[in-house]
Amino acid sequence: MIYINSNKLQTLDINKYNTYIISDFDKTITSHNSLDSWAIAGNLLSDNFKDEMQKLYEKYRPIEIDYTITVEEKTKAMVEWYEHCMNLYSKYNLTQSRMIESVRKSISQEKLIFRNGTKEFFTNAKKENIPIIILSAGIGNVIEEALKQQNYYFDNIYIISNFIEFDKNENAKKFDNSKIIHTLNKNMKFKLTKEQTENIKNKKYKILIGDLKEDENMVNKNEWDSTLKIGILDDKTENVLEIYNNTFDVVLTDEDACFQTIKKYLLNN
Fold first, then answer.
1. What is the pLDDT of residues 43-54, one digit of tens each?
2. Cβ(132)–Cβ(157) under 8 Å?
3. 3, 127, 133, 211: which one has the fewest Cβ atoms less than 10 Å from its Cβ?
């Protein structure tokens, strides 16, 4: 189903020439039943690693999607979660080669699944020279590798995320926790390159795509009037649907939670 704020849509003159896209990755570009990029990065590591990652997920994911707790509480929990995950990569000896192979196997085993229409959407954006900024609290290495392996990684795609650095022996270096991008702090303060900035600076409108309420903050509040905010909602419980309808201009659920819908309704100009 599609829930649309028609009044907002009428105020935006969006077309392929005046628009760029800012999108989350995990559970947005990928399907809701995919492993997230944190889990995929270490999917070839030991069962002990997976058990520890799963326990962290079970502890912190409910906090991430709980809209009844304060921003301060949630921020503290997200930082703790991400720090623990980064430490596990070092503890269980993640290497660059293992990570790349993990992405390949995750795709072949359908543990990493792109939403329907992703390839066509990205290909069309490339053809029409529409910049896509993937702004993710996940693992940038996984995102980049997954796009490369699917032949989606075009030069109009810019990734802002948590990138793991590897040493000359391919071992994961200790991550600088002060640089962690998490659910509540991911926004455009994490800068693009000079060239990338040039490619978007004259674009009047933005299309924002995310699966969490907090994703609206990928764009500064004072720019929301020139932003079409699209929410993808897989868990359509009544209270969450109301929150999403009050947050996003377009909410996509069920079979319409895909990039075919976004392309059909928004990028045909």
1. 999 999 999 999
2. yes
3. 127
